[in-house]
């Protein structure tokens, strides 16, 4: 998706594209601590892989400063993963499932019971894109009312 966006979407001016992309990278820095504490191992691995792909994409599109910023972001996430406690890995074959349930309930962390709704990203015009963003914001507000992210 990012590679396709980079090639065809506005802004067409390379300086503006680079500035926009660096702003997006900066947004990911704010979520490092929360993600590192709440993400499962598979999610951490997926993020690491996607950041590596993103750095390669920008390297191939002659944007080494963005590739470097992505590598720096990767390093920040890796440090946060190392500082955070090991991510909980649910194992159905575990013989001690009762203690695992007790530990989860004692921590006070509640996971959303309903799966995340699927959003169709509609960007064929400004109104459709705005409506898509509003749907995402509504879901964020519903699922994480304490987080200011959905209200921005």
UniProtKB/TrEMBL annotation:
Domain of life: Bacteria
Region annotation (Disordered) ranges: 86-122
The species this protein was found in: Escherichia coli
Protein name as it appears in the record: Type VI secretion system protein TssA
Biased segments, Polar residues type: 100-113
């Amino acid at each position: 998706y990012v590679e396709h966006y980079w090639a065809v979407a506005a802004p067409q001016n390379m300086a503006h594209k680079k500035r926009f992309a660096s702003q997006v990278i900066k947004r990911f820095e704010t979520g490092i601590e929360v993600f590192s504490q709440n993400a499962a191992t598979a999610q951490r691995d997926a993020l690491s892989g996607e950041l590596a792909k993103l750095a390669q994409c920008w390297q191939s599109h002659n944007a080494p400063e963005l590739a470097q910023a992505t590598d720096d972001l990767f390093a920040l996430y890796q440090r946060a993963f190392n500082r955070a406690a090991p991510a909980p890995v649910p194992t159905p074959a575990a013989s001690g499932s009762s203690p695992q349930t007790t530990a989860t309930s004692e921590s006070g962390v509640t996971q959303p019971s309903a799966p995340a709704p699927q959003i169709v990203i509609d960007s064929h015009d400004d109104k459709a894109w705005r409506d898509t963003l509003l749907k995402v914001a509504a879901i964020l507000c519903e699922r994480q009312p304490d987080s200011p992210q959905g209200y921005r």
